[in-house]
Write a structure and sequence with these properties.
heterodimer; A: Glycerol-3-phosphate (1)-acyltransferase; 7-stranded mixed beta sheet; 7 strands; B: mainly alpha; two-stranded antiparallel ribbon; 17 helices; 3% strand
Chain lengths: 232, 397
């Protein structure tokens, strides 16, 4: 864990988001949202996460939050740390091959309104980026992990091109970099039992695709934007 | 097997202490409430004064500290009032949180993950379970204690023998071997030491504070001098009474079971003394501080603050002797040792934080940095206070 984030976790601006259960009508939707509330409480207890908004405010405008990926908990914890009204408008992008496998996983993914994308079986005109744009319409925001898979090393992996095409096809979307610190110690790759350490989520200033910016240039800039948050 | 045989309730009823809360304890709690109210009033009054009377930064720190003391006091008092079981659970949760802060601050590697899981979810709960049961199987004060003792075949066994060595011996052997199993040899010794140390400080040492509840306290105080306390009159005996008491105690060195106060009071006294010693050392350091003890470690701790703070703590500790089984001079010595150990704890934790480049370790209580920052002195003082009390003021044979 970096010193900056350590200071934030241990001595800084933590923001506790209270989660209240919704009305107890016993519809499947109510169950789903109850599951979501419980999941986010558990995730927050386990990850002890503090959230920092740096040069960025919570907003219901359409955004793509892009973050480094080191743990299974990343999506859930990041999603849980958004304010409630924003959370209901935000969908995390997850791998269909994993989250569609069992009924339980499907239920979990459904309750947090995750957007399942097929990584293996990509069809023409149904590319992941197309699917994402279709799914968010003009109200929802996305959480993506441009590294593709979870990263086992300390160094962040190269970004895949999806983020670039998202920015190109929908230039109105705010692309918001997020750095997730210490979650890889809470639940590293290949482990199934979490260790309840304190983690830190830093949400940085939005960025856009510049005119005439090449794919590699943009992806490098986006990666730097996430990396920079590590030391703030 | 009927519902009664299942003994659900006993889990809660296992820990029953006859003299848990007594009148002197309530008086001490009252004194602390009054002191906190006075501190709050002073803080709020100074806040309304013109700027130049007192430095605003100092005042803000003071007000934050007072607020945090109220919170600490409320939590501890609630635990004590709800009974021994709640007190154990409370200290267990504090340990858990402190351990969380400590490990977060300390870099570990992937290979330590499963070891850490053991530390958090096995050793910590077991330590508090053992401390919680403590001497219940010897005392057999409740039906459930009898039932559990017979069921487990542990009648007459004091678990002190186990909880006083479980972490320093068994956990300390287990941790490096579990890390070795993970197959990652890099910085092996360092990683083992970090995890062992965090468990030792945050869990093992702190658990000695609630363990005080198991001691069969003895006192050398004359029974006559104290009868006034048990009838509710808490005004300290006159000075001449004390002199006669001293004279008496010199003629007869026999000790008698201490029935006038409760273990809750002794625990509260201990925590109070450690906190006071922090305050006094800080205050005297501000007023008289000249020679810094170790500038590389902590720039605000001075020899003047340390000596004056420890002596002041000893005096205040002596003045509160009526809540403990100690005579006045014994209370002064205990408070003295407690203050010295508390100071050692703060210095050690400062060194660790300085090494890691952080100033505080958490945010739970506003103005009081982390849980670990507040309890570091308690952690270091608790085992020494416990063992001194056990050896000199309890029937441990």
């Amino acid at each position: 864990m970096t010193l900056a984030a350590l200071r934030a976790v241990l001595g800084g601006e933590s923001k506790s988001v209270s989660v209240t259960e919704q009305s107890s009508r016993l519809t499947p939707d109510a169950f789903m949202s109850l599951t979501a509330s419980i999941l986010s409480v558990i995730a927050k207890l386990m990850a002890g996460s503090s959230v920092r908004w740096v040069d960025c405010q919570p907003d219901t405008c359409q955004r793509v939050y892009f973050a480094n990926h080191t743990s299974h908990l990343d999506a859930l914890v990041l999603w849980s740390s958004l304010p409630r009204n924003i959370r209901s408008l935000t969908r995390a992008v997850a791998a269909k091959d994993y989250w569609d496998k069992t009924a339980f996983r499907r239920y979990i993914a459904g309750s947090v309104n995750a957007l399942l994308i097929d990584r293996e079986n990509i069809k023409v005109h149904r590319s992941p980026v197309e699917l994402m744009i279709q799914a968010i319409g003009d109200t929802h925001s996305l959480i993506v992990f441009p590294e593709g898979g979870r990263n086992a090393t300390d160094e962040m992996g190269e970004f895949k091109s999806g983020l670039y095409y998202l920015g190109k096809k929908r230039p109105d979307l705010e692309l918001v970099p997020v750095y997730i610190d210490n979650l890889n110690r809470v639940l590293p790759r290949g482990e199934f039992l979490p260790v309840p350490l304190l983690s830190c989520i830093t949400i940085g200033p939005p960025m856009w695709l510049e005119s005439g910016e090449s794919k590699t240039e943009f992806l490098r800039r986006a990666r730097e934007a996430v990396k920079r948050l590590k030391d703030i | 097997m009927t519902i009664e045989d299942l003994h659900f309730e006993p889990l809660l009823g296992l820990l029953q202490r006859a003299d848990w809360l007594n009148e002197p304890t309530y008086w001490l709690v009252g004194v602390v409430i009054v002191a906190l109210i006075v501190a709050s009033v002073i803080g709020q009054t100074l806040k309304r004064q013109p700027e130049n009377t007192v430095s605003p930064a100092l005042l803000r720190t003071f007000n934050q500290r007072v607020r945090a003391w109220w919170m600490m006091f409320a939590i501890l008092a609630a635990g004590l009032l709800l009974g021994p079981t709640c007190t154990i659970v409370l200290f267990g949760l504090v340990s858990f949180w402190a351990l969380r802060e400590f490990i977060t601050m300390t870099p570990t590697r992937r290979g330590d993950h499963r070891t850490l899981f053991w530390v958090f979810f096995v050793f910590t709960p077991i330590q508090y379970l053992l401390v919680g049961v403590g001497s219940s199987f010897v005392k057999l004060e409740s039906d459930s204690a009898v039932w559990w003792a017979d069921t487990l075949g542990l009648r007459g066994v004091d678990l002190y023998g186990l909880y006083s060595i479980m972490i320093p011996v068994y956990a300390s052997l287990y941790i490096p071997s579990r890390i070795a199993l993970s197959g990652d040899a890099r910085r092996f010794l360092e990683r083992s030491a970090k995890i062992q140390f965090s468990l030792l400080i945050c869990v093992y040492s702190l658990s000695y504070a609630p363990a005080l509840m198991h001691l069969d306290l003895l006192t050398s105080k004359p029974a006559v001098g104290n009868s006034s306390l048990s009838t509710g009159d808490v005004t300290p005996p006159e000075a001449e009474d004390e002199e006669t008491a001293e004279a008496e105690s010199q003629t007869s060195t026999t000790r008698r079971p201490w029935k006038e106060g409760g273990q809750a009071g002794l625990l509260f006294y201990f925590v109070l003394i450690v906190q006071l010693s922090d305050v006094f050392q800080y205050a005297w350091g501000k007023l008289l501080g000249q020679r810094v003890i170790a500038p590389q470690i902590n720039a605000s701790r001075t020899w003047e603050g340390f000596v004056s703070g420890v002596l002041t703590t000893a005096i205040v500790g002596a003045l509160l002797w009526w809540v403990t089984p100690f005579r006045i001079w014994e209370a002064a010595c205990m408070a003295f040792v407690t203050a010295v150990m508390g100071s050692a704890g703060s210095m050690t934790m400062s060194a660790i934080k300085r090494d890691r480049g952080v100033t505080d370790t958490g945010t739970l209580v506003q103005g009081h940095a982390g849980v670990l920052d507040r309890i570091d002195s308690i952690c270091f003082a608790a085992p020494v206070f416990f063992h001194l009390t056990r050896y000199f003021f309890s029937d441990f044979a």
